[in-house]
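Discussion board: Methods & Data

I've been asked by a reviewer to show the raw model output for two of the constructs in my manuscript, not just the figures. I'm not sure how much to include, so I'm pasting the format here to get opinions. Each protein appears as its amino acid sequence followed by a line of discrete structure tokens. Is this the kind of thing reviewers expect to see in a supplement, or should I convert it first? Here is construct A:
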Amino acid sequence: MSSPETPHKGDILVVDDRPDNLRLLSAMLSEQGYKVRKVIKGEMTFDVAQVNPPDLILLDIFMPVMSGFEVCQQLKADERTSSIPVIFLSASDEPLDKVKAFAVGGQDYITKPFEISEVLARIEHQLRILQLQQQMKDQNQRLRAEIAERLKAEAALRQVNDELDERVQERTAALTHTNQQLKWMGQKLEQALAQEQDLNRLRSRIITTISHEYRTPMAIISSSTGILEDYFDQLTPTLRHKHLGRIQGAIQRMLALIDDVILLNRLEFDPVEVKLAPVPLASMMEAAVAEVHTTVAQPRQIAVTLQGDYLQPITDASLLQTVVINLISNACKFSPPDTPIEVSVNGQPQQFQITVKDHGMGIPTEEIESIFEPFFRASNTLNVQGVGMGMAIVQKCLDLLNATATVHSQIDVSC
């Protein structure tokens, strides 16, 4: 009996017009446990990759007939091969060649003559990224399936609600037409009303439960990067947690940026219906502060002071709360963690004013007028994380509310 084939670490396709390079790379990678396939002509690469896609391609740049740049462009243009990582191999150390390699879709660039350890490290890095991407893709598919199930449950709930509403209408009509028989039907009517109340309580319970369960997929999205720790078995625990923390932090920052961009785009380009209604400033401020506490990295002291006799202005609650959250979050971001954020609300008959004071680094006087522009960062804040979206969102909301904002600041003085 023949023994089962030993699993390989990955399927590598090496493309080089020099046989000695192919032999060297093939021997090196095979010794490390990789399955290696070789192609000596660039124009053959696409057909080979289509028939049996490899996990990664090592691609020489300067080859006759078809260069590595052209091969990479052809691979990336077809969705069947576009996701295969490409590492360029070249004797050229010219910056323009490196720039072009990345421009056509390459993931990495190794200069010949290469060190074996460097080639192995870069291959393992790209394969690890590919593995993590597949893990995230599988996780997203599971999440989409769960969301689809929940949407299906929601549709069923709406059907139940419609049936309940129909039954309520039928019972109301029956009661209207049988008023003369109320004494005779009193006992049966009480039973029907009791049953109706039970159905309404059941409907409320179902709505509450589903609403609560909707939080689960969002929590999974937030914590899913934690499962990637299992794949960093070649690192020490300290480095493993360090790299995982970076991945999670990057994902959170990208998601926050996407949310801010979408919100700013909606405020600027989509028709936004301003819903005017009395807004209790006290409860609105409490909710806004609670929201900020869930997003800041460290606990912050946020003091809110209410004054004035008109603390229920007619305005749009959602837009106003967005303004307050972004103002307080901005103050927290640029202030030392041990300093308080002071928020005061002053309600007057014809207007109300919300003031946020922090103890941060201040803004250069010549740059104050620019802080409400999208993506603007003050010149003295470049070491603080952010992309300059918060104050732009504030400005767009204020424009919709026909409100204005003013800024008072001095460098290195509380503002």
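Construct B, same format:
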Amino acid sequence: MRFALPSRAAAVSAAALLALSLASPAHAEALPPANPYAGPAGTATMHGDTESSDATALPGPGAGPLTSNRAALASACPTVLDGSDGYPVALCTTIFGLTPTVHLLDPATGDSIAELAIAKGSLLGGVYAYLDNRDRLVVVDGNDNLLRIGHRRSADGSWQLSVDSSFPLAGAIPAGDSVVGISPDWQGRVWFATAGGLVGTADDRTPGGAVRTLALPAGEQVANSISTAPAGTLVATTAATYLLTAAADGTPRIAWRQAYDRGPGRKPGQLSWGTGSTPTFFGPGTGTEYATVVDNAAPTEHLLVYRADTGAQVCSVPVLLAGGSGSENSPIGQGNSVFVASTYGYPYPKLPAGAGPSTPSSSAFRGGLSRVDVRPDGSGCDLKWDTTVRSAAVPRLSLGDHLIHTVIRNPVIPGTDWTSLLDPYSYAEIDPDTGTVVRTKFLGAGFLYDTLQMVGTIAPGGVVYQGTTTGVLRISNG
């Protein structure tokens, strides 16, 4: 169904679908709890929810012919979120000038209907952001201001984006450092982590709100986003995984720390020397019993699972055995299952400052996708399947259709592993029980369609929004 403004009937239909998905016995071990200070579960953060499960109750496109539309924004768009009003919001970075820019998208076409530039930040202009419970984009700009960006119609009927509030973090963040990840906790504070290993909370609900910080051990950096659940905040540095809680005044404190094998150096297809994971909460009951990341061990990396309450290690399982064993992507976590995709050898056109050379210096992109299940009694984990799917995006698991949704980058010359500027890209659906690709749809070829290991978002109505190096793809049945 095409629409310019979601109707009441459409909203009711989406709500009913979500309720059915959560109530169905097949999904009894479904999703982590919805954060009251974030937007709709499944579409409020880059990884779906504040727990970074990369799972959603919403189904993707149903059976039938698929269509795709490319919004050409001359920008890389790693974050596409969807609020309760049905209007997607994308955080992009322009190709020329590297200016971070927020786009409001037309839900009927995926085209930009309003845009707002913000101050330059770190890689891709501040990749991580989230929607709050008023559908405002929450992001830290390059001047270390915590912004809440809203959208509304103007008097002439056109759409506008505007900064509803700006809260300074600059006094708490050292010169030369920058915020990497942000996420709200269950008390309404905004947690943040910086590239230099500083974690903090900010209460921007009042003009004089407090900012409290804690420096993690010297030398540890943060290269990925953070995750929040009722039990606390997960942060993965280049050396260890942490669960942090907050004192009454908001000051972060360490509940537990688990070091991991960071390997001899940054692997090709990764953006930093260490884990490529945004840490993920998952579990069969509350959806938050466990925490997981991948390490950077060489030659084979491991999926690490911990008890979220104590940090006790449940298992360390070698993964991505059939393809390249290295990942820049956050795992999918749902029920007792975890899925991790390989990025080993993926050709990024730009690396963060200070990334350093990779070890080895280069590699083919062979792909890889693994499923690991935690045993029902919690006594360990087992590798269920391991494939060479060449996923070029962070996969998303739908409980609504029981499929994994991603984009596959095929070699322009079949049977080879090397990548080229002419490679074709296809939307793909994968059976999570077997790892088998069950449906594909050709999207296009070349740089314009490179999804660059960015995340796709499944929105109500069976629509998938997928960022690329040059804009946003809208994939649907009509």
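Answer (T.O., handling editor elsewhere):
This is acceptable in a supplement if you add a one-line summary per construct. For B, something like: The first helix runs from residue 8 to 23.
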